Amino acid sequence: MRRIDLKEVEDIALGASLLGAGGGGDPYYGKLMAIGAIKECGPVELIGPEEVPDDAVIMPIAMMGAPTVLCEKGTGGNEYRVIYDMVSQYLGKKVYAVMPMEAGGVNSMLPIAAAARLGLPMVDCDGMGRAFPELQMVTFTIGGVNATPMALTDEKGNSVIFNTITNKWTEELARAVTMSCGGSVTVALYIMDGRTMKAYGVKNIVSRSEMLGRAIRNVKNQPDLTPQEAFLKASEGYGLFRGKIVDVLRETNGAFNLGRILLEGIGDFRGKKAEVTFQNENLSVTVDGRICATVPDLICLVDTETFTPVTTEALKYGKRVMVTGLKCYDMWRTQAGLELVGPRYFGLDTDYIPLEERVKGGGSDV
User: pLDDT (tens digit, 9 = 90+) per residue, 327-341?
Assistant: First the structure.
């Protein structure tokens, strides 16, 4: 067990924004919520998965909806207590700890804010190892865990608990309520015992986020490495393209941010063109028509000078970015994982090929 205080929040937010693969919401907004909660209620205890009793109730906390909407609509501050009371009353048992369900700018921060305001520990574990746009897209679905009972509330006080026959039905029904509530809500889902969390969770994701954030802050302080080399070494990433954003096509549809980014190469990539598609998170990247990476591997855009992650809602003309690929959690590369989050699920006309094989086969590496 260790404590998450204000300094740790800064690094976790930065690192989780990279693991969000372009999605997960604005890290600045999520960070403000976590910082405000810690200042009011004190630091949060971060516990390892193995410290959790097998029969303890673990409650993942997240926001659902379009991240751009959340940045404008905000939260009311009472959502965590509402959800805690709903879940405890429904189960007839107190919640032992909270945990994040994904890595990303907002959803890595909400559980910290919830833990601080509820006085509960947070588990160093999640259900993705990155961010995905739909709520059934978690490793716990592969393990047969039900998303329901799922508690949902908005900033106005509207609340509901779902019981559904499949996790896909949970996504459909909760998405409809989310739209009725203005496009973003706070949820608790995949409520599970400690034994299940240990078997199917992505462990040490908060610690990894903190390490990545610290590394990004220090990329220019490595005496034997260039900043780019330091970043790629710390992230274990593959440099796929460097370019200037020349067009961004974006729309909000069904509580998703959808679109594509067009880039013109700079430096060693001058004369080449790249395209990145996204649905909240980046889905694919092609260079001169050749696919370099697809989901479920992580496709991350970072600033070429600071290596700070650039989320999909922060994309703008003229920004210079490096497109970086990170390997996904191994469970996503299984047949069951690819059925949930593989490229064909998102409408991409390609089978999944692991990132490192695409790079070895002639993909770019800056």
Answer: 999 999 999 999 999
Structure tokens at 344: 């064909």
Question: For 231-286, what is each residue's pLDDT tens digit?
Answer: 999 999 999 999 999 999 988 776 677 899 999 999 999 999 999 999 989 999 99
Identify the pLDDT of residue 365: 47
Classify burial at 262, counting beta carbons within 10 Å of its beta carbon; exposed 0-12, middle 13-18, buried 19 or more.
middle
Count H helices and E strands in the chain, helices first: 12, 18
Which amino acid, residue 254? Answer: G
Q: What does the pLDDT look like over 77-113, one tens digit per residue?
A: 789 999 999 999 999 999 999 999 999 878 999 999 9
Q: pLDDT tens digits, residue range 105-134?
A: 789 999 999 999 999 999 999 999 999 988
Q: Helices (DSSP H) in 218-354: which residue ranges?
A: 227-235, 335-341
Of 288, 282, 249, nearest to 265 by C-alpha is 288
Structure token pair of residue 308: 């700070």
CA distances from 213 to 105, 149, 303 (A): 12, 34, 14
The residue written with tokens 């591997």 in the block is 297
Query: What are the tokens at 85?
Result: 């009371």
Three-class secondary structure of residue 37 per DSSP = helix
Residue 211 burial by CB count (10 A; 0-12/13-18/19+): exposed, middle or buried? middle
DSSP 147-188: --SEEEE-TTS-EEEE--SSHHHHHHHHHHHHHHTTSEEEEE
> Does residue 43 register a pLDDT over 60?
yes
Could you tell me which residues are beta bridge partners of residue 123? 47
| Residue in the structure block whose two tokens are 């906390």 | 61
DSSP state of 74: -
Q: Which helix (H) or strand (E) holds 68?
A: helix 67-73
Query: What is the spatial distance between Cα 256 and Cα 134, in angstroms, rounded to a whole number?
Result: 9
Paired tokens of 57: 């109730």
